[in-house]
Amino acid sequence: MTTFVLVHGAWHGPWAWDRIVPLLHDAGAHTITPDLSTVGDHGLHDHAEAVVAALDAAQEEGKLVLVGHSYAGLVVREAADARPNAVGHIALVDGWVGPDGASMFSLAPDAFVNAVRTAAQTRGDGWRIPPPPPAAFGIADPDTAAWLAARMLPQPLRTFTEPTRLSGAVDRIPGTAIHCRPQTYPFDRFGEAVGYRTHALDGPHDVMLTDPKPLARILLDVCFLQEAEARSLE
């Protein structure tokens, strides 16, 4: 039975997967949703360690599918690099991803970086990034927007500035980069650059909130793909 480790992106929490988890359970899968805490001045490496702890706790589950949304693309890659034998497949959902030394700020365009730094300096005591409005994640429905706005938390700036530390072990793990359409950033090209298959999905950046069923289907297809890859190595 497959276990999905679902890792949320910046400003979000494990609740970001609330509409996906029941669908995966109905298909017979297990799920783990680590919390990338935003309490205190955490960095990307702290978040990667939290995911490593989740992988270690799930060792009895066999090969895991490690899923990262947005900023967590960088986090899950560093965690998988530390525990390559525990992860059978990496799936990114509009995920930021790059080689060793990449960070959010090294991958994002200057306009994004400047806006984030300004927000942290003017409204976040210099070290926290206030949550953007739900519309920044493509959420137009008023009820979903209100639900999201009530839950988002400030993001430590250091999570966007710290570069990833990769040994190269993660590059031996197959991956899928799911990119939402219409695109906000070139998430398909980020995935291709690290050797991942790409898969388009119509929906906004927070597609797990607006279109959970199509996303769940793709993740389950990734599960079957992982099993086929494992059989090919036997």
CATH structural class: Alpha Beta
Helix percentage range: 25-40%
Number of helices: 10
Overall mean pLDDT score?
A: 93
Sheet-strand content, in percent, reads 15-25%
User: Termini separation (Å)?
Assistant: 18 Å
Enter the CATH topology name: Rossmann fold
What does this structure look like?
The protein is of the alpha/beta class and 234 residues long. It has one domain (3-228): 3-Layer(aba) Sandwich (Rossmann fold). Helix content is 40%, strand content 16%. It has helices at residues 21-26, 44-57, 72-82, 104-107, 110-123, 142-149, 158-161, 187-193, 207-210, 212-232; strands at residues 3-7, 30-32, 64-69, 87-93, 128-129, 155-156, 175-181, 197-202. The strands form 2 sheets. A 6-stranded parallel sheet has the order 2-1-3-4-7-8, with helices on both faces. Helix 2 packs across helix 3 (72-82). It is globular and about 45 Å long. It starts with a strand and ends with a helix. The mean pLDDT is 93.
Key terms:
single chain; 234 residues; alpha/beta; Rossmann fold; six-stranded parallel β-sheet; two-stranded antiparallel sheet; 40% helix
Topology:
Blueprint: E1 3-7, H1 21-26, E2 30-32, H2 44-57, E3 64-69, H3 72-82, E4 87-93, H4 104-107, H5 110-123, E5 128-129, H6 142-149, E6 155-156, H7 158-161, E7 175-181, H8 187-193, E8 197-202, H9 207-210, H10 212-232
Parallel strand pairs: 1-2, 1-3, 3-4, 4-7, 7-8
Antiparallel strand pairs: 5-6
